[in-house]
Amino acid sequence: MKSLIILASLCLCTLVSSKSFLFGGSQHTLVDDATPVPGDNPLIFCADPSDYILTIDNVDLDPNPPEKGKALQIKAKGNFTQTVDKDAYINLSVKYGLITLVNTKADLCEQMKEVDESCPLYGAKDFTKEVTLPKEIPPGTYTVLADAYTKDDEKVTCLKATVHFG
């Protein structure tokens, strides 16, 4: 579960987009009119991102779609328009079909250490991270929701990804 939280935090804060075992095979977004996150990735914003504290310029995955048992390179670039201090948090939900695998709240600043960042977060951020996806990814549909807030409950960003693989 820790790796899910860490990688969801990557996905989230420009620092981006791989819930290690969640991607692979063909990907299908369930919401047709959603705003996609710029770049080569399966991410969509939960709502209009113009009010979010984090402006995501792009998130690129290589390969996209990610492949089981192989390295996944994540490149992300964005800008924090307001300071995000300690006690910021991320609500993370991971579902396999209708079954909830993870539903947790994590310290956003602690998770950012996985990409060599620390709070306070402000201004332009740019990073590249590589993770290896496990070979043993069960086939099915996975839905991930990563919703981040400041300590004062201001929306930092909210991202979704729905992935299906066989």
**Main sheet specs:** 5 strands, antiparallel
Percentage beta strand: over 45%
Proportion of helical residues = under 10%
Which residue ranges are poorly predicted, with pLDDT under 50 across at least 5 consecutive positions? 1-32
Question: Judging from the principal axes of the Cα atoms, what is the shape?
Answer: globular
Number of strands: 8
Give the N-to-C terminal Cα separation.
22 Å
> By helix and strand content, what is the structural category?
mainly beta
Work out the helix count: 2
Q: How confident is the prediction overall: mean pLDDT?
A: 82
What's the SSE pattern? HEEEEEHEEE
Side-by-side strand order of the widest sheet: 1-8-7-4-5
Radius of gyration: 14 Å
Record keyword descriptors for this entry.
166 residues, mainly beta, 5-stranded antiparallel beta sheet, 10% helix
Describe the structure.
Helices cover 10% and strands 45% of the residues. It is built from two helices and eight strands; from the N terminus they run αβββββαβββ. The radius of gyration is 14 Å and the shape is globular.
Topology:
Layout: H1 2-12, E1 44-45, E2 54-62, E3 71-84, E4 89-96, E5 99-107, H2 108-112, E6 121-132, E7 140-149, E8 155-165
Antiparallel strand pairs: 1-8, 2-3, 3-6, 4-5, 4-7, 7-8
